[in-house]
Amino acid sequence: MLTKEYIKELKNRGNGDIGQLINKYQDSASLTFILENLGQLPKDFDGSFLQNLLTHKNANVRLWAVKTIGKLVKEDYLPVLKNIATIDVDTNVRREAVSSIGRMRTINGQSVLTEILQDNDPKIVCQAIRGLLVFKGNSKIDDNLKSLVNHENEMVRTVIYKEYFAKLKDKNGQPHTESYDYLKNVVVNADTIETMKLLKDESIHLTFTSPPYYNARDYSIYPSYKAYLEFLADVFKEVHRITKEGRFLIVNTSPIIIPRISRAHSSKRYPIPFDIHPYLMEMGWEFIDDIVWMKPEASVKNRIGGFQQHRKPLGYKPNSITEYLMVYRKSTEKLLDWNMRQYDWQTVQDSKVPEGYESTNVWKIDPCFDKVHSAVFPVELCKRVIQYYSYKGDLVFDPFGGSGTMGKTAKSLNRYFFLTEKDENYFEYMKSKKTKEMFDTHETKFLTLKEFKTTIK
What per-residue confidence (pLDDT) applies to 262? Predict the structure, then answer.
C-alpha cells in the first residue's frame, strides 16, 4: 500500500528503490502521489527513472517529474529541461522546466533562459525573466532584459519596467498615510479639473464618485457622447495624478438611455462604464473589480410594460435595476501589502472592517431620492466603499460632490474628505447641512476657488 511513510523510507535507502516503485505503479494517480511526496532529495538520489516520465500522457505526471528533476539541481539535466521547456504541450509543465533551469544558476542555464525570452507564451517569458534576474548586474543579461520593455505583453513590460526603469520616489515627499491640512474637510465650489490642477501629486487616498450622466436633465449638456467621455477622461487623469501610489478609484455609473425625440425615432442607450474603461486603463489605472449595485425593481423606471402586453420577440426591454461600481487601483510596482504596511498597528486595528461585510460583488442597497439632487448616493453605499478601501484618517475625494453624502459619511467614519462641486445650488445645499460631528479641529470649510487658493501651503 502506498503511504507517505513508505515513500520516505524507500527514498532514504538511496539505492534506486523509488525507481523500482515507479515501475510497479503505472497509473497516473499513483505516479503523481509518489512524486508529490518525495520531498527533499538526498544529493546521491538516483533520478534516472524520471526521464521516462517526461513523455507520460498525463500532464500532472510530467509536471511532477520535472519538479523532481529540478530538486536535483544537476546541469546534466539541462538539455532535457530545455527540450521540455520548448516542446511540451502543457504551459504549466513548460513553466516548471524553465523554473528548474533557473534554479541551477549556471552560465549554460543563462544561455538557455535567454533563448527562452523569445517564446510566444508570455507566462514562459516571465518565468525566464525570473530566472535571469538572479544575475541582475551582469551587463549582457541586463541588456537582454531591458529590451523587453517594449514587449507585446503587458505583464512582461510591467516586470521589466519595475526592475529597470521605475523612478525612485522622493524620500522628502509627504508620508503615504498623511494628507495636507488645507484639503481636510473642504468643499470647493468650482470646476473640478481647475481645482485639481492646484493640488500636489499624491495628495489623496481614495476617490469615490458618481460622474454626471451624459446629457441627463439636470446636468451639463455635452455637444457629443465622445466629448462627454473625453471630459471624464480629463477628470480621471487629474485624479490619477493626485492619488497616492497604489490607492483606489471607484466609479459608480451605469448605461443610460437618451429618450427618443418622437415615435418615428428610436431611443439611444449608451454603455458609459464600458466606454470609459479603455480611457482609464490607458492613463494608468489598473482594473481590480466590478461591483454590481442592485436596487429594488419598484425603484426604477418601468421599461418592461410594453413587452408585458405583447411579448413579441425583439421587443424585450428589461427593467434596469443595477449600476456598476468599477474599482481601479493606481498602477504601481508595489503590492497591496506595501500600502498596508505604511500604517501603524493601532490604525490598522481601528480600521478593520466590522463583521457583516459583503462577501460578493452584488450589493443590494435601496437608492436614495432627494428633491434637490436626483442621483443621491445611498449612505450605505458610501459606507461600504469607504470602509473597504481606506483607513481611518485617510483623505477621501469626490470630484462631483453633489449633495455631499460621500463627505458626510467619510466624516462619520473618521476619515477626512475633500469635495469639489461646480453647481452652486448643490454647494449651497451642502452648506445648509453642515455639521460638527467629527474632527472638530478640521471643521468643514465651504470655499470658492479664489478662497481655496489662499489656503494652499
Answer: 61
Model pLDDT for residues 406-450, shown as the tens digit of each residue: 999 999 999 999 999 999 989 998 888 765 554 455 789 999 999
Decide: 330 and 240 in contact? Cβ < 8 Å.
Answer: yes
The one-letter amino acid code at 129 reads I
Q: How far is CA 193 from the centre of its chain?
A: 25
pLDDT class of 373 with cuts at 50, 70, 90: very low
Cα separation, 441 vs 260, in Å, equals 52
Query: What CATH architecture is 4-165?
Result: Alpha Horseshoe (1.25)
Considering the chain, what percentage of its residues have pLDDT values greater than 90?
A: 62
Maximum separation of any 2 CA atoms in the chain, in Å: 88
Domain boundaries, the chain: 4-165, 181-455
Whether 181-455 and 4-165 are alike in CATH topology: the answer is: no
Half-sphere exposure of 110 (CA within 13 A, CB side): 15
Could you tell me the fold of the domain covering 181-455? Rossmann fold (3.40.50)
Which cell numbers hold the place of 360? 460578493
Q: What is the pLDDT of residue 438?
A: 44
CA dihedral 197, 203, 207, 210 (to 10 degrees): -20
Q: Do 290 and 325 meet the contact criterion of CB atoms below 8 Å apart? A: yes
* Residue 332 DSSP one-character state: -
pTM, entire model: 0.73
Bridge partner list, 250: 208, 327
Strand, coil or helix: 397: strand
Residue 45 burial by Cβ neighbours in a 10 Å radius (0-12, 13-18, 19+)? buried
The predicted structure's pLDDT at residue 195: 96
Compute CA 309 distance to the chain's CA centroid, rounded to the nearest angstrom.
44
Could you read off the pLDDT of 209-238 as tens digits, one per residue? 999 887 665 556 788 889 999 999 999 999
End-to-end CA distance of the chain: 76
